[in-house]
Amino acid sequence: MSRNKAKPSERPLSRLLRYADKYKPTIWQAAICSVLNNVFDLAPPAIIGAAVDVVVQQENSIVARFGVTDIFGQLVILSLLSALVWILESAFEYAYTRLWRNLAQDVQHDIRLDAYSHVQDLELAYFEEQSTGALLSVLNDDVNQLERFLDVGANEIIHVIATVVIVGGSFFVLTPYNAWMAIIPIPIIIWGSVAFQEWLAPRYAEVREKVCILNSRLANNLSGITTIKSFTTEKYEIERLRQDSNAYRKSNQKAIALSAAFIPLIRMVILAGFTGILLYGGVQAASGALAVGTYSVLVFITQRLLWPLTRLGQTFDLYQRAMASITRVMDLLDTEIDINSGETALAVSDIKGEVSLNNITFAYNQREPVIKNLSLHIRAGETIAIVGATGSGKSTLVKLLLRLYEIKSGSITLDGQNIEDIVLWDLRRGIGLVSQDVFLFHGTIRENINYGSPDATLTQITEAAKIAEAEEFINELPDGYDTVVGERGQKLSGGQKQRIAIARAILKDPPILILDEATSAVDNETEAAIARSFFFLFFFSLGSSDCIYVMDYGQLIEAGTHEELLAKDGAYSALWRVQTGARLGQLSNK
Questions:
Q1: Is it the case that residue 91 has pLDDT exceeding 90?
Q2: How far apart are the first and last CA of the chain?
């Protein structure tokens, strides 16, 4: 998908319009329908003027010039003409409404997909600095603001322009000496509208910021509802939400206080133009210098000319809200992608699995390095274990291999190829990860197991579940593999979720399998069963690893087999005693 990147000094509106480029035929159709609707909407005043002319002039009326001198016949013609005008006006209103709204949906759809696609390409560090609620606010609420503007705003602008051209032209044709009274308010209103909205812009920007904070609070609290309930902090969270909601309300009130004043002020300008036509035109009609029918038309179309300009304020209001939102969306699209894909394609079937880490160093956000000049060579087909205390850097190594973060110095190679040169999708497709922090999507067990392997058959899915020791509990569920697990798998226990994640990795069948404390949430019996079933894929067990590496503060401090490291009575032996002691303690409490 192509990205709408900013050009130097390009305004948000220009970028928004670039999204509409491919919909030019639809835009033209919608614009033509809007203009034709406006034409037929302005026709009734002319028909009313003709009717007045028939009543006053009778056989000398404008209609009579077309050969119908009978008054009733003239009125019938005008009635039929009115019916035709109303039908065509309604038909074109239906057409432009459908076209503009569908266009809004299409542009909104493109922008949302573009923004989400860009977000997916951003590195993990970006998400650590942004709240989920803030991103949702941009991807959903801000994009929806664009829809509201495109739904109404474009049509309103075309209507105003068409009205000014048609009615202004009619004035100069019917009574060129009086036209200036109706025309003069127009530039004043337009200038006032633009100036007014410039004052509104910063207020709506503040509104978007406040709604972002509010959405972040709501998303965070809904995700942590279990913690809120367990700590009985419901009142505390309601108070925090009240403060955020009140800040949003007050920022909106500031914008409303200014925007609400616009239409009353515009009405005063309209009143001046309308009064001028009413008085001066009336004097001319009374003196015979202006036909009564023409005077009636002028009075009606003055109202039709100037009154739509009040809606210009609402249109500009929608515009400013939309621009505040589009600025945030475009800022998101302009966020630089720090991790770029390489260009060397790598088929999964060609990956042997030889991994080398060569003097790599990494630090999070300018902090102290968590990995320091680390080197490690893993031969193809080899099973290794990396152990260490919490914070020693084990999980960081996994993230670096997947290029979820970029190393600061050194290099990582896969089968002799620098991973920075490999197509990112190919690299990650060749690696299977089962994390301690398991994430299941809202959906069925079947959908979660074949996530990443959508073409897998039911037989393959059940075989993967069997290897992961998940089949037994799945079959006990009311809907089996079609059981919905809930958001983040909340309907399942920690061990059940982990086994589903393991089955998912087995089904993917990657050349490189990484288990980041993958059996931490399962009991000893299940862990042993998984190890037995999964032995052909070298499912991790410290005793069956070809080599065990011990990490401490981002460095490898010991290496060897399980027995060799125990015999050294060093860091690994201490960790082993803590681990086995903890497990014995857990068992004794049951």
A1: yes
A2: 55
